[in-house]
Structure formats: C-alpha cells, structure tokens
C-alpha cells in the first residue's frame, strides 16, 4: 500500500496553474451561457486574462532560463508597493482633465463594457472588430479588472494599471535584468539587480503614458518577453515552445499599439543581422555546420511566423499597406531625425547617459559588445523608420524603451562590478538619480526629463509660454468653469440637438467638456470632435448642424499656428457670426481666456458653407476626400 502511495503522481506547479486557468475558462463559459448579460462577466474575463498573462510571463522566464529567488521576489513586491504609493501620491496632487489621446482608452473601456452588457458574443465581436483600427480594444481585456471596482474616473483608470499591468511588467523587467546579468557574467549580483532593476523601473518615460491614463506601457510586457526569449538564443536547435511564445508575444505587442511595429521591425532586423554576423564568424572558425543550422532555423521560423502573422492580423496589415501614414501624419513630423535625436537626448538625460557609458566600458572590457550593439542598432533603425512618419511624443518613447533598458542594464552591470571603487559616490549617484527620476513631471508636454522644482527655477525665458501651457494643462485651475460650461450645454441642448466647439487645442478642446466629470459623459454625441490637424481631421460639417457654437478669446494656440486649422475656421466665424448667430452665454476661465456660446439664428445656406470651405482651398487640393467631398455629401443630404 505504501508503495502505491509513493508512486502516486503529483502535479507540477505549472500543471496546477494550467489546470486552474482551464477550470476558470470553463467557469466563464458557463457564466456566459447561463447569465449572458451579467455585469460581472466582463470583469471576470478581464481577471482571467490577467491571470493568463501573469502565468505566461512566468512561463517566459522559465523558457529563458531565468529563476527568481526569494531576494528577487521580495524586491519585486517592495518596488510594486512603492509604485502603488507613488501613483496614489502623484495622481492625487494634480487636477488633470483627460482629453484627446488621454481619454481614448477610458472611452474604449466604457464602449467595451457596453458591448459586453449585450452578451459575450457582442463583447468579443466588438473587441475583434477593432483589430483593423489604429487603436484596438485588446488592452481593455486586461484593464477592466480592477477598473470596474473604482469610481471610473480618469485618475482611477490610471491608478488601476498599477494592479492589472504593472505586476506582469515588473516580472518581465526583473527577468530581463537577471538575463542580461547572466549574459554579462556579472559577479556582484546583489548590487547589480538592485541598481539595474530600480534604474529601469523609475525611468520617467516608462511610466509617462500610464500617468496620463494611456496603458500603452502594457505592450512592453511583450517587448521584454521577446528580449528574454531571444537575447542569448542563437537558433542552434529548434524549440517549438520558445517559438510559440515569441510568436504570441509579437502578435500581442502589435495588437497593443500599432507603432510598436517599429520596435518589432527594428529589433528583429538587428537581431537577425547579429546572428548572421556571428554565424559567419563560426563558419570562418571551421564550424560551418553549426553556422548553417543557425541560419536555416532562423529563416524557417521567420518565414512561418511572418506568414502566420499576416493571416492572424490581416485587417491591420491590409490597412497599414493601404494607408499613407507619412503623408497624413506629416503635421506631427516637426523636424525629422535631427529633432528626434534632440528629444532622445533630453528625455534620456545626462545621468542616464553617464550610466550608458559605464555599460559600454564594461562590454568593451569583457569583449561582449553584442548587447549594446544590438540595442543601438535597433534604436537607430526604429528611429529612422518612425521619423519617416512623425516625431515621437512622450508616450511613443515606449517603443524605444526596450533598447534603453538593455543599455541601462549594461550600465548597471558596469556600476555594480566596480562598486567597491569609490563606493559611496557611486551609491550617492544611484540614489540621486532615482530621486531625480521619480520627481519628473509626467505631463502631456514633457520633453525634458526634469523635476518640477528644476523646471520652475531654471526654465529658459524663451520657454516661458511653453511652461505656462504645461502648467495649465497638467494641473488645471479652471475645472469648475469647464464643468459649468459643460452643464450649461447639457441643460440647453434638446433631444437630437448638438453643439460645436471651434477650439481644438491642448489647452481647450471638446474632450475637456465631454470628460470633465467622468464617469458622467452627458455630452457624448452632443459635442463632436473639432477640426485642427491637416491630413487627420475632416472638414467639420458638424458646425453647420450645431444649434450652439463655442469659441474663445483669445483663441488658444499651443499647436503650430502656421498649419493649425481651427484658428482659421474661427477667423471666418468671427466675420460671419453677426449675421448667422447671436451671443447667449459667456464663461471666464480665470486665466485670461473667455469662452462665448453663440446660438444659430439663420438657416445654413450653400453660400455660407462654401465661404468656410474656400478658406481651406490648399488643403482641399491635397485632401479632397476630407474637404470638398465631405461638404458636397453634406449639402446633398440637406438639399442644398
């Protein structure tokens, strides 16, 4: 009997985890069948997806040969607790109204909740239907829980990411720290992990988008997974399990945000180039068989993976191939590669550049140049590709973060390995850098990674206006006035009536009025997006449908005034308004800006519409489908 008991099979932790996730999936199927419109279904799906993601992250670490001991796990928990406190403090000390890109995912979350309220089929169909869009609903699967338990404001959406995104992200980041330490054969593992992990975790542009309710950093989970699975893998043997994980991570990062494709292309090209060069060296050393096997396996996997990716993501791929992003996004290309290099220098900062030099010194000393070469090659290639379309904003720096993480971790290795020489100054340098990094203002206009006290004390005079706009948008003092104006529109707009707001600027835009009192958004469908960016925004026929028109004096112009379209539209309105509208309300924002609401008094005529259209003859010649075609369709529908 004892022999039988001793031979009884026990399940490994991996098997137990898989069984648990499988049981959870079956439970979700039952709930979906028995209670298809239950409010708890989508949050339960989200919780299950997050568990799958965490399990997958652990599996990636296992496949990559990375083990987390008690010290690593304790450090992750401690840093995560610190992140919770940081987000709670940073979000609570400002007044930020989420608009433009900063409300995009919150709105998607609301829309996905509404779809799942109709049933599981409608919910999943809605998510899949967005796979051809520039912003998919893939991330909403993971952010619904614990967002569903919050007040559903913009700040609570940002804070919820600490629980649904950050754990898996920190796990992958810790694994990557260990993996690079293995490759560089770091001996001082304690200081290396503490310095490296804390340094990359506090890098301001890692958390910048998260602080503004843009969960784009979610894609870094899969970027770090790709690095873990490939950095020291040379395709010497076929590993189907590793291949599946690489493929899934690549598909997931593309679904997270379209522009992560620039990282994918840049990294895989650089990685393949590195492998070909190393294989050529092997062939010269007489190991032709091994070199050919490496190249054969890489090509075999690459061709199969690319074919499968095209099939899986064909809606997105077909749109990318058919749409001229470099033409339509030219407004955001403010200087090409020269400006991009300047942005990178400012966003990286002097302290991080010093750290990178430590890493280059160590890699040269130990004759292990592959990591910095790979990172720099990927960084430059991705940068060259991306700047063909536009220059990067603060959140788009995320596609460069994997390369910077490699460089920072190499630097942490160099610092840790030489820590016994001038130990106190080096530790002070590290601690000062962390304090400096966590105090960086995470605002929409952040270009330089500087703390607020530095910005206030030392910003150049020629940046005074920029600084003023940054303060006005990051910590708003006019939220009560914006809420009052929004409430006026809610009270005065009848069924089927709409208003149109001419300013569409970082300082003031329709999104501020729609989202100033989240989760209430009573102006949805009553206040459409406005018109400001050439090649991106269509001619605003909604202006002619509007009962009320909202404009401001002075007209806000934080965008490029030479190409911004809204102020030109406003100039025509100022000429015609006395004959078409009457003033009905004003709102003083308390910062020098006064909003006026005008009510239409005369029916729209073809002559009026064409007067506005002729102001944009140059844009119409370039984008007739966005101007004259839109106008003619509107006129035809309205019998004009």
Question: Would you write up a description of this structure?
Answer:
- With 640 residues, this protein is mainly alpha-helical.
- The protein is built from 31 helices and 4 strands.
- Strands 1-2-4-3 form a 4-stranded mixed sheet.
- Helix 3 packs parallel to helix 9, helix 3 runs parallel beside helix 12 (219-230) and helix 5 packs antiparallel against helix 6 (120-129).
- Keywords: Membrane, Transmembrane, Transmembrane helix.
- The chain crosses the membrane at residues 14-35, 41-61, 70-91, 157-178, 190-206, 212-231, 243-260, 266-283, 295-317, 341-364, 371-391, 397-415, 427-450.
Sequence-ordered SSE layout with sheet pairings:
Elements: H1 2-6, H2 13-34, H3 41-63, H4 70-92, H5 104-116, H6 120-129, H7 140-147, H8 154-164, H9 166-183, H10 189-201, H11 204-211, H12 219-230, H13 240-256, H14 261-284, H15 288-312, H16 314-322, H17 325-328, H18 336-348, H19 350-365, H20 370-386, H21 401-417, H22 423-438, H23 452-458, H24 464-474, H25 479-492, E1 499-501, H26 510-514, H27 542-545, E2 548-553, H28 566-580, E3 581-588, E4 594-600, H29 606-614, H30 617-622, H31 628-637
Parallel strand pairs: 1-2
Antiparallel strand pairs: 2-4, 3-4
Helix pairs in contact: 2-3, 3-7, 3-9, 3-12, 4-8, 5-6, 7-8, 9-10, 9-12, 10-21, 12-13, 14-15, 14-20, 19-21, 20-21
């Amino acid at each position: 009997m004892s022999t039988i008991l001793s031979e009884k099979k026990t399940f490994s932790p991996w098997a137990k985890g898989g069984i648990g996730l499988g049981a959870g999936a079956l439970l979700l199927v039952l709930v979906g069948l028995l209670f298809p419109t239950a409010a708890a279904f989508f949050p339960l799906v989200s919780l299950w997806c997050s568990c799958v993601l965490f399990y997958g992250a652990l599996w990636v670490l296992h496949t990559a040969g990375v083990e987390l001991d008690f010290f690593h796990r304790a450090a992750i928990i401690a840093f995560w607790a610190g992140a919770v406190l940081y987000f709670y403090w940073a979000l609570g000390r400002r007044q930020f109204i989420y608009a433009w890109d900063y409300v995009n995912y919150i709105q998607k979350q609301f829309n996905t909740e509404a779809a799942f309220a109709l049933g599981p089929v409608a919910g999943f169909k809605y998510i899949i239907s967005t796979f051809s869009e520039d912003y998919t609903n893939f991330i909403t699967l993971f952010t619904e829980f614990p967002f569903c338990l919050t007040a559903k404001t913009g700040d609570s959406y940002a804070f919820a990411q600490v629980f649904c995104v950050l754990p898996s992200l920190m796990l992958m980041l810790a694994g990557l720290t260990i993996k690079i330490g293995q490759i560089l054969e770091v001996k001082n593992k304690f200081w290396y992990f503490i310095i490296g992990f804390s340094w990359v975790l506090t890098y301001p542009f890692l958390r910048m988008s998260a602080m503004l309710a843009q969960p784009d950093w979610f894609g870094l989970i899969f970027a770090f997974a790709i690095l873990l699975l490939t950095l020291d893998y040379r395709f010497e043997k076929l590993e189907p399990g590793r291949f599946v994980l690489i493929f899934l991570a690549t598909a997931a990062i593309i679904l997270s945000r379209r522009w992560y494709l620039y990282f994918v292309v840049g990294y895989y090209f650089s990685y393949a180039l590195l492998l070909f060069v190393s294989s050529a060296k092997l062939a010269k050393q007489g190991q032709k068989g091994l070199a050919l096997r490496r190249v054969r396996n890489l090509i075999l996997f690459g061709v199969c993976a690319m074919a499968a990716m095209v099939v899986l993501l064909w809606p997105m791929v077909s749109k990318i191939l058919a749409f001229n992003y470099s033409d339509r996004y030219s407004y955001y290309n403010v200087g090409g590669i020269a400006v991009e290099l300047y942005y990178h220098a400012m966003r990286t900062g002097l302290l991080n550049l010093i750290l990178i030099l430590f890493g280059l010194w160590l890699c040269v000393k130990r004759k292990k140049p592959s990591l910095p070469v790979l990172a720099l090659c990927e960084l430059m290639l991705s940068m060259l590709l991306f700047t063909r379309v536009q220059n990067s904003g603060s959140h788009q720096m995320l596609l460069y973060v994997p390369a910077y993480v490699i460089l920072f971790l190499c630097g942490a290795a160099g610092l840790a390995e030489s820590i016994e020489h001038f130990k106190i100054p080096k530790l002070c340098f590290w601690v000062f850098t962390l304090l400096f990094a966590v105090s960086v203002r995470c605002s929409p206009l952040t270009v330089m990674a500087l703390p607020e006290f530095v910005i206030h004390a030392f910003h150049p005079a020629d940046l005074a206006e920029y600084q003023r706009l940054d303060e006005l948008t990051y910590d708003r003092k006019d939220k009560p006035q914006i809420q009052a104006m929004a409430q006026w529109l809610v009270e005065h707009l009848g069924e089927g009536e709409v208003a149109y707001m001419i300013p569409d600027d970082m300082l003031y835009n329709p999104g501020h009025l729609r989202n100033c009192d989240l989760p209430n958004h009573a102006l949805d469908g009553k206040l459409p997006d406005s018109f400001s960016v050439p090649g991106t925004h269509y001619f605003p026929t909604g202006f002619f449908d509007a009962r009320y028109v909202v404009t401001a004096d002075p007209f806000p112009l934080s965008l490029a005034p030479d190409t911004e379209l809204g102020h030109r539209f406003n100039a025509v309105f100022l000429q015609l308004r006395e004959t078409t509208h009457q003033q009905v309300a004003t709102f003083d924002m308390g910062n020098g800006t006064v909003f006026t609401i005008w009510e239409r008094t005369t029916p729209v005529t073809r002559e009026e519409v064409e007067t506005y259209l002729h102001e944009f003859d140059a844009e119409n010649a370039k984008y007739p489908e966005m101007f004259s075609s839109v106008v003619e369709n509107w006129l035809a529908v309205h019998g004009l």
